[in-house]
Request: fold
Amino acid sequence: MEDLRKSFPPREVLRGLNLRLKPGEVLGLLGLNGAGKTTLIKLLAGLLTPDGGSIRLLGQPTSRALIRKAVALMKEGQPSLYEFMTPRQNLRYFGHLLGISNLKERVEEALELTGLQVQADKPVLQLSFGTKRRVGLALAYLKEAPVLLMDEASAGLDVRSVAEMRNTIRRYASLGRAVLLTGHEMGFLEAVCDCIAVLHAGRIVVEGRLAELVQRLGLQPYLEVWCEDQPAVGEVLSVEAGLFRTKVSLGQAGHLNWGSVRHLRLQQSPLERLLQEDVHVEG
Reply:
């Protein structure tokens, strides 16, 4: 994607966006509500047309035919499945429509990849929301799409389903396929993504591997403490109700006067801090 632009007058949603998705990589797209994440997903899926800029897929300019062949889209919510049919029957039906050869073998591969062997012959109607989402991933695998787009990948999933979805996405990417996903569950994104891109004011303002971003932007975990007396270490952020609200690194914590501490909070998730703190610096 290069210099990608999209407006819904009078609002310009994407303003010269640049982003690259690599084979075998899971890229997490972050941004506050209204930042343009879903708009970008729809542009890549061919559901919207950009006002400017270019999108290339497999080294070629995009076309409807190429998108249909090379892109699998999982929108937020429940995938479109025949509820009276089983996952195996759904896969065989849609695989037949796609003209997939060796369909029986490919269906079994898809069920194994997504961990659906046990549920393969139960009616979809009886399956949990998270399991239905994994059936959607199995369909994406069956299609052999080199690019998978997932909007709100972990929305509505319980703890067990989140773990299963995370493992399935990692297995999907291990086949050399590119995955772009959005979401609001920071722990899920930290666990599943190789790289992170932050969308802010219509542009990608931060991009890179998570570990590198943590070091470059100073996003290491720290303690936020409220003390009666001003601490000898750390950075005082504010004074609230007579207490010094102070940012203290984990290495400095041993030098605190703990008798003065009235409240503390561990600020741990680097992705939450990417969105909350003033780290939106180009590059």
Residues 222-267 form one domain.
